Amino acid sequence: MPDSALENLQTAQFLVAGGDSMAEHISTIFIPIVFVVFVLAIAKFSAKGWRRLAGLYPLRNEFTGQRWFFRSAEFADSSIGSLLIVGADLRGVLFSIVFPFSLFSPPIFVPWTDLSGAEHKGLLTRFVELKFAQAPEFENRISGRLADKLEGSSGGVWKYERASRRVFFEKDGA
C-alpha cells in the first residue's frame, strides 16, 4: 500500500475510534460565539427605552449606597427578570443591569425629586408603579417590597402613594 493510502486508513481508524475531528473543534468554538452574539443582540435591541432613560438620568458620580442584586422589574417598557441591580442613597436611586446585558444598558440614576410612585394591589401581589419626571410616558414597576427598601433608604425624602384599602364586603343600609 502506498504511504498516503496507509495514512488515510490510519486517520480514518483514528476518527472512528473517537479521535477529535475538525468538526468537533469548530463546534467547541462556534457554539459559544453564537451564544454570546445572540445574548448581546437581545440586550441591544431590548434596551431602547432603557438607553433613553439613561440619557435623561445618567450616573454622573460613583454610587456608594446600598444595593440589591438580581431583582425583577418591568422597566422602560421592558421586562427585566432577575437582571436588575437597584441601589439607593440619600441623593436618589440607581438602576443598573448585570453584566453582560449592561453592555448596551448604562446605569440610570434618578434623584428622589424626580421620582414618584403609586402602589397597586392585586389579590396576591403588590407592586409600585414608578414615574420619572423627565419621562412620564414609560411604565416602570417594581415589587412592593423593593419599594419599601427604597423608601427606607431615602432617609424620609421619598415616599410612594399607598393604595387605598380594598373592601370586599359592604353592608347596605343604615
What brief labels describe this structure?
31% strand; 4 helices; alpha+beta; four-stranded antiparallel sheet; 174 residues; three-stranded antiparallel sheet
Backbone shape? elongated
| Total helical elements | 4
Largest sheet: 4 strands, antiparallel
Content-based structural category: alpha+beta
Helix content percent band: 25-40%
Mean pLDDT: 80
SSE pattern: HHHEEEEEEEH
Number of strands: 7
For the termini, the CA-CA separation is 110 Å
Strand content: 25-35%
Assembly level: single chain
The strands making up the biggest β-sheet line up spatially as: 1-2-3-4
Low-confidence residue ranges: none
- Calculate Rg over CA atoms: 26 Å
Give a verbal description of the structure.
With 174 residues, this protein is of the alpha+beta class. 33% of the residues lie in helices and 31% in strands. It has 4 helices and 7 strands; from the N terminus they run αααβββββββα. It has helices spanning 3-16, 22-46, 48-56, 144-153, and strands at residues 66-75, 78-88, 92-97, 108-111, 115-121, 126-132, 135-143. The chain has a 4-stranded antiparallel β-sheet with strand order 1-2-3-4. A 3-stranded antiparallel β-sheet has the order 5-6-7. A hairpin with a 2-residue loop joins strand 6 and strand 7. It is elongated, with a radius of gyration of 26 Å. The mean pLDDT is 80.
